[in-house]
Specification:
Elements: H1 3-15, H2 19-28, H3 37-56, H4 61-80, H5 84-90, H6 93-102
């Protein structure tokens, strides 16, 4: 088994997200113009804060899966040439941010 496969197995077992979902994300969010390192660092802090607030406020499993998948894209964006902007939009992370950080509930 290659290092990439080992890393992916570990990631899947730790996050509980199926391997196929992560592979799909890598393919879906591939970009010839990936997110810069500066933006990536900001996004990692954003993800951390959001996950902490979601944990404290008992988010649903579906919401956690979305933010964890987004975090995976953010962490791997430089190495795998991924677009965090597209993942942010597709996974509707702004809704989670508004709900758990700003306290705004969407109908």
């Amino acid at each position: 088994m290659s290092k990439i496969e080992n890393d992916l197995e570990k990631l899947c077992s730790e996050s509980g997200i199926p391997k196929s979902t992560i592979y799909d994300a890598y393919n879906k969010y591939y970009s010839s113009n990936p997110t810069s390192k500066t933006v990536r660092q900001k996004d990692i802090g954003y993800c951390s804060r959001l996950i902490i607030e979601m944990t404290a406020k008992n988010a649903t499993d579906d919401e956690f899966e979305r933010v964890i998948l987004y975090s995976i894209v953010v962490i791997d964006c430089a190495k795998k040439k991924l677009s965090t902007t597209k993942a942010y939009e597709d996974l509707n992370i702004s809704e989670l941010y508004n709900k758990y950080i700003k306290g705004i509930k969407e109908d």
